[in-house]
Design a protein that fits this description.
two-stranded antiparallel sheet; homotetramer; 6 strands; alpha/beta
Amino acid sequence: MNTIQKLADFFSRFPGIGPRQSKRFVYFLLSKDKNFLKEISDLILKLKDDIKMCCFCYRYFPGQKEGAEKCEVCVNTQRDKSVLMIVEKDTDFENIEKNGVYKGLYFILGGVIPVLEKKPENKIRAKELVKRIEKDVKENGLKEIIFATSLSAEGENTRDFLNDLLKPIAEKNKIKISTLGRGLSTGTELEYIDLETIKNALKNRI
Amino acid sequence: MNTIQKLADFFSRFPGIGPRQSKRFVYFLLSKDKNFLKEISDLILKLKDDIKMCCFCYRYFPGQKEGAEKCEVCVNTQRDKSVLMIVEKDTDFENIEKNGVYKGLYFILGGVIPVLEKKPENKIRAKELVKRIEKDVKENGLKEIIFATSLSAEGENTRDFLNDLLKPIAEKNKIKISTLGRGLSTGTELEYIDLETIKNALKNRI
Amino acid sequence: MNTIQKLADFFSRFPGIGPRQSKRFVYFLLSKDKNFLKEISDLILKLKDDIKMCCFCYRYFPGQKEGAEKCEVCVNTQRDKSVLMIVEKDTDFENIEKNGVYKGLYFILGGVIPVLEKKPENKIRAKELVKRIEKDVKENGLKEIIFATSLSAEGENTRDFLNDLLKPIAEKNKIKISTLGRGLSTGTELEYIDLETIKNALKNRI
Amino acid sequence: MNTIQKLADFFSRFPGIGPRQSKRFVYFLLSKDKNFLKEISDLILKLKDDIKMCCFCYRYFPGQKEGAEKCEVCVNTQRDKSVLMIVEKDTDFENIEKNGVYKGLYFILGGVIPVLEKKPENKIRAKELVKRIEKDVKENGLKEIIFATSLSAEGENTRDFLNDLLKPIAEKNKIKISTLGRGLSTGTELEYIDLETIKNALKNRI
């Protein structure tokens, strides 16, 4: 297998990329000069040296030492340390943060738990989450945990798991557990609304 | 203009139908026998004789006399007469009713109010709604009005108008005014959530 | 079943219309005044009185007597009577005619022949076509028959059937049988071209 | 700007990739182990060392020395050296070759000429093409040149330029110039066919 094919194979494993587009990526790179290729190659090579996982919220950020540093959100003294939002992945964090309406801290699960999964605790950062909350209780006066999982079968399953996992520590420490509100979202049409959404919209009316 | 073109012109005014599909409708009808054409022609002709507007909720239903009868939902003694849901149109009513989770009564506005509309009261059944509520207060012990308008600029504008319109009568009679809950709906992804939805989801967390 | 549902059922048999849109059609009609309904009802009712099938090309046109009249294209003395294009349906005729580049006459098959069909002659106007060509030979000096069927399995199957059907009469009368050219069409990209199209494009290069 | 953003910026320049997907690519890479990153980084870095441009058809292939070697198609003695197909880009070549119906040789233009371009000869490998054809005339008994440009404004403009460029040498050496056939392609429907395609289909009927 030649280098065009080998590289195309790698690209075809990227999220959302099929065999045809992966080939076009390779020809695109071939059309660029060596500097372009060196730059992107260097960035990929040193990605894991430049980017570390935050030891507190577990998101990727530009850090120095693995597991030893907090990201800029976690060290920001302006953030409300009494609220913790639990999200599935880095891009969820990025989008919520970009909208700028949430002022508390975060925890990135790094995955979801499929329905009927036998070892759910291996699919997400369960142990790390418990440790984080224990620390938050002691040091940050944690008052509320917000579940921000997606409204899908996997997301709901993950939420159920988190609820069972965190209920004891929450009750013991009088921490409120909440979930992002449910109901009509931008673009929902009453004419096409599904059972689950109309149920939630009725139950959670404002 | 010949009959093919004339009929196609009518069909092209149907919701969602362009000039090409309207032509295909005509050729479809031409391919059917005269009985088929007579049946559909008769149904259209007597549509307004067979279908009346309910004098209570203003939805279309199989009735006898214009403005003199209540539909089967409005006369159903099993329904909770103390709750009134206000929806924009008949298809919204149909879809909510099909899902079977709402047990109260309805009112169909028959439209929405565009933003900056100068005569908003002409765009929806405003007077009819006020009369209905006055009646509900006297006869049905109305306790709650639910706004079920869509989450769009027009829908929100309609809701604002309704709120101003109904607040006095609601306060005077201790009727609660609510709106369908807002937040994540089936299919919302945190990664792509918009500002308005994340705001609502945070505010209305459960 | 009430009139709303009955009429929606009819509309749901229209090409490309599902149960939801058919309901919206009915509510659209209910929102119109009685005149609108009467007009459309009348047009449908008398559609088959106003529109006849041309006795020569078998397309629908505004005519008086069933099977006794020719349409305006067939009677147009400016058209080239020596060329006959065979198309599947009225909308194909309309689109080709709209583009204005073809100057000959037409025959509408009124259908296509599915692959493996046992009675192919019943699926299209086969007998009528043979009669038409016999007449064209005698009266119009027919020199060429153009197959303008679609490039699909059914279309190709129809073309094969027509070829077998018309070959004897064509050979006997020295009529050329041709098919619309095949190859790249507007929008075809070489990067995504399929086997059949590249084969045709190579074979029929210009 | 941190490494996540820098790398995402590079990915967003890939064909068809927007800012959101480019971010997802970076997080995908972060989720992989260092070996995966090293492999893909190495493949990109040495892409231009492993892959050379064929000195004869100018396509990218696994070669040793820049501009000094022919690819496996150009050296294949089974190919018909008397026919030369001129395509726009490597992926066009790949797709035609994959379909396996063309047995001649190729030349990759490496681009197209925009309409009204002032220096058309700089947009494609014009000089290289002329040299190639001169060589083909002397050594390979070239008999036909096939233009396989796309059926778009740019593609047609490129074909016109090529025609003017190659006509003298073709006429002098009695080389036929042809273009891929035009007409119905797989999926074309007569009902929706555009003017250009129906024109071509009529003109090039078979």
